[in-house]
What does this fold into?
Amino acid sequence: MLMYLRPGNLFKEFLVKRKESDISDIGLPVSGYKDTGILVNGVLAEASTDDREKTKHMWDQDQHSLTHTIVSWAEPVAKKGDVLSLGNWYFLILAIDDTGSLGVATIYYAEERNDLR
It folds into this structure.
């Protein structure tokens, strides 16, 4: 079997950003995503219709915003609600699958977002 690799299909390093809430100087609540310094090394792929069907039960709704999957060969280091950033791309983690519960591989189900900078 011949495997076809494009330069863009290889591993990428994603920076994990976590949501933090604070109080501004004038007493109003503010929140934003801060860098954690944690890196996730994984392969980015667009979510297929099959992926959407398999994960439909996670959201308890027929339609959801799953757009990408990120597969990492390591234990989960990011949490649901974190953002994985890659340059100008931002992916909000919707769900995490610790494949086999062995800490060997992780699938991050994510939604590409443009408003989380």
Notes: The mean pLDDT is 84. The helical segments are 49-54, 56-59. The radius of gyration is 16 Å. The CA atoms of residues 88 and 110 lie 15 Å apart.
